[in-house]
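User: Continuing from earlier, I have the next pair ready.

Assistant: Great, send them over.

User: Here they are, in order.

Assistant: Folding the first of the pair now:
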Amino acid sequence: MLIDEIHTPDSSRYWQADSYQQRIDAGQEPQNFDKEFLRLWFKEHSDPYKDKVLPPAPTHMVAELSSRYIQIYEQITGKKFETDLETPIAERIENNLKQYQV
């Protein structure tokens, strides 16, 4: 259910509808797709507002965040997330934006 806006999980909160009520009734946080777990890791291992260099995020946490973002993309769009690792990133961005140029 979309209430008022759709942005990335960085700025909007997304919860899994099919488990929401059950988790709330059990006094648990709803299953979410945000990056709070990674933000808390950085808070525990550095001062993100003062440190000039932050420690690298653990690989398994980056993989978890990627997995969450892919899942929410697929659920919202109904499309399979596909990657193109052959085309350079800048070229991929340009190609993807061309379809929206007027």
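And the other member of the pair:
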Amino acid sequence: MEGQVKRSRRYDSPRRREQAASTRAAILEAARRLFERHGYAATSVAAIAAEAGVAVKTVYLAFETKNGILRALWHLLLRGDESPMPVRERGWFLEVLDEPDPERQLRLNARNSRVVKERAGPLRKVIRDAAPADADARALWDRIQTEFHATQREVVESVAGKAALKDGLDVDRAADIVWALNHPSTYWLLADVRGWTPSEYEQWLGDAFSSQLLARA
């Protein structure tokens, strides 16, 4: 009898995990729609639950707080999936660091920038707008800025390690240039305000990286 119960639990476990993952995905997608439509402050956990078609208790069990939903949603859109693997260990970021040609590195970085901004740009605005009035959103916003600068510096350090930076341009200044050119606010101005296509932005960004950073033979 005990053996039968154990076998039944092992059989049901994958199904439960699949159902939990599906429920979690539904909650995150519902939160994304509501956050982008109404803003973070105006969206309640109850509204998210109703949008996702689940009980409020289910939302709290999955994410604990509304800020937990926001953080999980940001990580999903930034990284591309729910794996806890950080950006620095993602294949698309490592591809940049592993590329031997400095100009190709910078153009791959521009490609990654475009992909992430298309995916996460609207939520980034939600977090930015919520930060002044919400301490948790502010902490997330500050962390996003710090980590973004750090990853861009890693790219610059790799380029500098190939002795490819312009004469007189050090890593600190080059990292600030890449960070500013690649900043989501720049994408917002060009794509959202001026109507550039994502591919036009990517081409411009790669050109700007190369002209600003690289020594020319």
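Worth noting for the second one:
The chain has ten helices and no strands. Confidence is low (pLDDT under 50) at residues 1-11.
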